[in-house]
Fold this protein.
Amino acid sequence: MTGTYSVLMVDDEEDVIRAIVRKIDWESLGFRVMGYAHNGIEALDLAEQETPDVVMTDIKMPYMDGMELAKHVRDMYPSARILFFSGFDEFEYAKEAIRLEAEEYILKPVDADELRRIFMRLRLTLDKEMDEKRNVQKLRDYYMESLPLLQENFYSLLVEGNVPPGSIGRYMEDYQVHMDAPMYTVVIIHTSTTRLPEGMSAVLLQESVRRLATERLVEKWHCKLFPHEGNIVLLVPCASREDVPRITDEADSFCRQARHVSQAVVTIGIGNVCRRLSDLPDSYHGAREAVSYRSLYGSGRAINIREIAPGEVRTSDEMPVRLHALFKAVKLSPPEEIRSFACQYVKEMSAGAVSLSMHRFQVIELVSSIYRFAVSNHLAPELLLGEDERMLNSVINMDAKQLAEWLSDTSIRMHTMLGTQRKDGAQSFVVKAIDYIHDHYGDQDLTVDKICSVLGVSSAYFSTTFKNS
């Protein structure tokens, strides 16, 4: 037996109720009589004091009869069971009892054995329902305990592009995720594991940074925070693109806080702004790229991909992993490392070619990838590859050593062109800032923040660029 259930007796004849109470061993059946009332109004008053599991009521009573009482009980306590007992064997009463989903319609005088059997069946039904409710509650409790992990898993799938756009809304509803903003950006917090405080493990340091980010950023930015691929990732809502410089400055300040509070060297990458949740993978990729630029711009600071590489776009996911590594080296590594990546790529490509036609096909794919990379990063492909077919024919007929040399030289030229492009962009930005200062020198409200707002950059990037100019 699951528990003891309460019974509310209702009849204007008190002697009838007392007789019923005496005839039944309620405790052995798993019930107790919580009280009795002489009419429906009194019964409702008692029900408000203690919710009954069973209401056993006469039909004909003054002020409020049993049928009216049953309707109120149904509205107030849908799970309560209704038993009618009456001295009237009329079809209309029985039909109304059925409509009100009553458990039984018992005729007076009440037979004790029959009533005992009714309550035995009723106890089994109530026990079963109570067990089901408890099981459902256990599942609900387990679900609520697991919800933070389910949400974090959803965020990871979202930034990896593994949630179909049409299913995002359903997942958000299932996992009780609320994200509704005009725009979003992804922020990645990368904690260096090569520069650990004395006596501190990488895991503990990461947890320290996560706690600090939860305290200082989550509520302030109204964002979602979760771990992913060894980093801390935040999905940040934005009112407009103008929010990103502010986020970058606050992220730069957080890097200094992490150094002071946790003794952690933290680099934060800020991705491009996107309007749809389904576009978060592109923003995530940009934030990862921004973090990787710490090799050029230094660790322990915030790096906004839009400020340092506004023209660079995501490389095709279909590109071989080794070629991805080569193009990443072109962006970030010194020439000797680029040459190593290029030679290794040609070595693997040559080893995998089983025929001359396959080799030529791979060379054509390589040249096409270089062309797409150049165009995506606003480099002039004709300066790299020429403007006619002679270059392609020449490359196709190169042996492995010649091809490795050609790919190394071409990759290093792209590296040089990207460096020049970044330098020119920084110089252009500095010139614009100086021109604006000259034009508004007499403005008493002229501040660094105002200049940054006009140029659309963060204060951190403004200061760093000016120092390096």
